[in-house]
Amino acid sequence: MDRRNLLKYSFSGLAASSLMASGLRESFLKKVEKTSFSLSSTNNDEDYWELVKSEFAFEKGLYYFNNASLGPCPKLVVDATNEFRALLDGFPSKYMWGGWQDEKEATRQKVADMFSADKEEIALVHNTTEGMNLVAHSIELGPGDEVILADHEHPSGTVPWQHWQEIRGFKIVRPKLPILPESKEELIDVYRKAITPNTKVISMVHGTNTNGMILPVKEISQMAHEKGILVAVDAAQTAGTFKIDLHDLACDFYAISGHKFMFTPKGMGVLYAKKDSQKYLKPLIVSRQHFKDPSIRRLENYNTRNYPEMLGMGTAVDYYNLIGAEKREARLRDLKAYFRGKVENDSRFKLKTPGAEDLSCAIQNVEVIGKKVGDVKKMLFDDYMIDCRPIGSHGINGLRISLSVFTTKADVDYLIDALKQV
User: Fold this and answer.
1) Phi, psi (rounded to 5 degrees) for 327
2) Average pLDDT over residues 232-251
3) What residue ranges define each of the domains in the chain, with the CATH number in brackets?
4) Which distant-in-sequence residues (6+ apart) come within 8 Å of 206 by Cβ?
5) How far apart are CA 15 and CA 419, in angstroms?
6) Cys-Cys with 236: which of 38, 127, 128, 291 at CB 3.0–4.6 Å?
7) DSSP E strand stretches across 338-387
């Protein structure tokens, strides 16, 4: 099959088996065919990205630059999830207790393929917070042991370790990261200096939620493993923005929130655990299969689940593949360059995100000189209906701008004009 038909097959294969009883099945498959034809195009002009934007049903007048907080679902994902939900409600016990087993595993495989992993390394959890809790809960540390958590970690990545520190008595080490490093070697050196003979775990973000800085996970993992140190990664801000090969990254654990740049239904996430490192993990919740299933599925054994959202995540991965990983990344880097080019030589603004390709991608942070970021955020929303995230910590005082595939250059122009007015 050619690429377009292959993508159509991927969508309809899930729909044909799961939506068989739905009266809307044919109309859904027609939408799939139409969207597959349009979005798998080789075009890369602004008309193409306007078409992508039309797949998202934003409130009228809203300019959305807050994808790093919470992303939308494209219409195909909304339609598919609603259909799964209607089918579940039509015959609840059938689909909750095994009727969707094949579809669940198909979703797991799609996620594994997206991140170049084995499906037996993928747990379908709720979000990054759950994944980081699972890791911190599992690894048995005690007095004398150390965990490295740099100062730009998200609370969801720090609080679980702080909680278990109170119970187990290990030490948390908090090195400071530079806000505008000139190279990834500068970041690697921060971790190198923080490691001691007592270090057992490095828990780190792949991309900071403060200024969108990308950390060199691969190099830090390699350095850590030479010393017998485990590496857990919070990937909430990177999954879906550029191509990620988890085997190449070499980390032990990688926790993902699908509801940001992957555009999955809310409350769906992923925990990757390298096969050799799964022995360290213990479930947060145990249920009837606890003593029967030794696979990574033991980490997601909740008894009942919101399966429509889970299967909707599979559709979101299909949507991701319609555009393609390389094309998505190239677009986000193009938007990044376009945005930075509009502000970097203007004395009214100061970029708070490193510009190198290996140090940032979809998230950029800009300070309006002489103004408090909270005030700027309020004016942008009240006067221009622009939604973005103010970051006041770490001396940043800047607006976090999330660029996404539904962002057009006209949207960026509107944002820049508003910033200049402010």
Assistant:
1) -70, -40
2) 97
3) 109-318 (3.40.640.10), 326-421 (3.90.1150.10)
4) 214, 215, 217, 233, 234, 235, 237, 238, 254
5) 44
6) 128
7) 349-351, 363-368, 386-387
Which ranges in 169-210 belong to alpha helices (H)? 184-194
**Integer Rg of the chain from CA:** 22
Kindly give the interhelix angle for 25-39 and 307-323, rounded to the nearest 10 degrees: 30
Arithmetic mean of pLDDT, 291-310: 93
Strand partners, 387: 64
Q: Report the alpha-carbon distance of residue 164 to residue 152 in Å, rounded.
A: 20
| Predicted pLDDT of residue 17 | 46
Residues whose CB is less than 8 angstroms from the CB of residue 130 and which lie 6 or more positions away in sequence, other chains included: 255, 269, 271, 284
Could you give phi then psi for residue 350, rounded to 5 degrees?
A: -140, 120
Query: Average pLDDT of 196-215?
Result: 98
- Alpha-carbon gap, residue 173 to 112, rounded angstroms: 32
The residue whose two tokens read 């973000």 is: 205
Alpha-carbon gap, residue 233 to 221, rounded angstroms: 10
pLDDT: which is higher, 322 or 226: 226
Tell me if 229 sits within 8 A of 199, measured CB to CB. yes
- Cβ-Cβ contacts under 8 Å for 151 (sequence gap 6 or more): 174, 175, 176, 177, 394
* 379 Cβ neighbours under 8 A, 6+ residues apart: 422
* CA neighbor of 391 nearest in space, from 43, 154, 230: 154
pLDDT 10s digits, 137-174 = 999 999 999 999 999 999 999 999 999 999 999 999 99
